[in-house]
Amino acid sequence: MRPSLVGLDEIRAAAVRIRGVARRTPLLDASLAPGRLWLKAESLQQVGAFKLRGAYNFLASCEPPALRGGVVTYSSGNHAQAVAWSARAFGVPATVVMPTDAPSVKRDATIAYGARVEEIGTTTVERRARAEELLAERGGVMVPPFDHPAIIAGQGTTGLEIHEQLGEERIRRAASASPVGSLSLLLVPIGGGGLIAGIGAAIRALSPETRIVGVEPEGAPKMRKSLEAGAPITLDRVDTIADGLKPVRPGDLTFAHVRQLVDDVVLVDDESIRRAVLWCYDRRLVVEPSGAATVAALLSERVVPASAGETCAVLSGGNLDPGLMATWMGRVS
After folding, report:
1. Are both 137 and 218 inside the same structural domain?
2. Phi, psi values for residue 98, rounded to 5°
């Protein structure tokens, strides 16, 4: 049985729930010939990543009595922070299972938001297994990192904003020398697939002619391989500097969204991602490797920007390890 996809009404309902909580992040004009390039700066979101949208919408969708036992989740970092932040806002305890190699900037922030953190393994499979053990032992509510309708709907509010903001720019620049056209190309990074599933659902309903392209690291091509196989598959290993894009398997629901709504999934290497992080930094934007994957696809010409109409790249997160950046700044870019 084919799973039901998240609809525009669910995304609009999520937008109401997170209003005043999640920031309406800016859409920045960063011209890149040919055509115009817009950057959707979710790197400036609360907790430094888009993940707050889905996590908060999930908790806001729960019946209050269900949350009394607290929440549990598993994450490499950005979802961890989002759940910790949201749980604090709802006044409930949070336990988060993170990998042993999680960036310290993400682990420390999760703890600072009030969550209890447990570290285990390096893969999504190991984290999820431990989180399910904790849930069975202590009760509470599991907050999935990506494969749930409420998570997808929350992330989809990013797509709503992109559509609205381009419309506002179109009106503002109507009489200018550089009017804004329709959204021709939209690039979205893929970890577990929640962000591209939600954005895909929103944009496909609002702008059906837009070409939607997902971007994954070459060292973690779980969605690309799943599409080739015709069903979600689990990678034997992953190896990439983009820690937020390292799940070994896409979700069943996110896979269904991508297969139906997304035009293509491309792969970028780590060196291209590193250069993209530095490209963003040169433009005064602090973006982590996972968030810069879309820019990497453009700079490496894995995707060619639209020559007519607008191109938009989602910068999904800005929780960059300062030590890593210092190392990279010492290399030739």
Report:
1. no
2. -120, 160
- Average pLDDT over every residue of 191-213: 97
Dist CA 229 CA 282 (whole Å): 39
Do 249 and 128 touch, CB atoms closer than 8 A? no
Please name the residue that has the structure tokens 């969605």: 223
Residue 2 lies in a domain: no
CA atoms within 13 A on the CB side of 323: 3
Asked whether residue 3 is domain-assigned, the answer is: no
* Widest CA span in the chain: 63
- Whether residues 67 and 40 fall in one domain: no
The verdict on whether 222 is a catalytic residue reads: no
Do 66 and 110 share a structural domain? yes
Q: Which one is catalytic: 76, 226, 290, 316?
A: 316
Q: Are residues 106 and 202 in the same domain?
A: no
Assess contact for 310 and 182: CB atoms under 8 A: yes
Res. 333: pLDDT tops 50: no
Which one of the listed residues 51, 222, 225, 246 is annotated catalytic?
A: 51
Structure confidence at residue 248 as a pLDDT band (50, 70, 90) = very high
Q: 19 and 71 in one domain?
A: no
Percent residues over pLDDT 90 in the chain: 78
Q: What DSSP assignment string belongs to 198-249?
A: HHHHHHHHH-TT-EEEEEEETT--HHHHHHHHTS----S----S-GGG--SS
Helices 78-90 + 104-112 axis angle, to 10: 10
Question: Predicted confidence band at 265 (pLDDT cuts at 50, 70, 90)?
Answer: very high
Active site residue 106: no
Q: What is the pLDDT of residues 30-85, one digit of tens each?
A: 976 556 899 999 999 999 999 999 999 999 999 989 898 999 999 988 999 999 99
Residue 1 lies in a domain: no
For residue 98, the domain's CATH number is: 3.40.50.1100
Q: How many domains in the chain?
A: 2
In a 3-state reduction of DSSP, which class is residue 74?
strand
Q: pTM of the entire structure?
A: 0.94
Tokens representing 58 are: 């999930």
